[in-house]
Specification:
Residues 24-72 form the GRIP domain. This protein has 73 residues and is mostly helical. It has helices at residues 10-23, 31-43, 48-58, 63-72. The chain is 66% helix and 0% strand. The longest helix has 14 residues, at 10-23.
Length: 73
């Protein structure tokens, strides 16, 4: 199984995102990776707070939007 389909931890997400940003234009988002992160967020309540910074960075959320996401987690 690929790292994108089974993300183990937040630091891993950060490294994957950083690598993707180096390889692609600023506005491109790996949709498959984003989909997997969001599915993990929705499926696993225990890991939601770990995923908030990842989702925030991928979607370029403002600090207020990140707080809203965190409260909902």
């Amino acid at each position: 199984m690929s790292p994108q389909s089974t993300p183990p931890s937040t630091p891993h997400f950060g490294r994957m995102l950083q690598h993707q940003q180096q390889d692609k234009p600023e506005d491109d988002i790996n949709v498959e990776y984003l989909k997997n992160v969001l599915l993990r967020f929705m499926e696993n309540k225990d890991r939601r707070q770990q995923l908030v910074p990842v989702i925030s960075q991928m979607l370029r959320l403002t600090p207020d939007e990140t707080k809203r996401l965190s409260r909902g987690a």
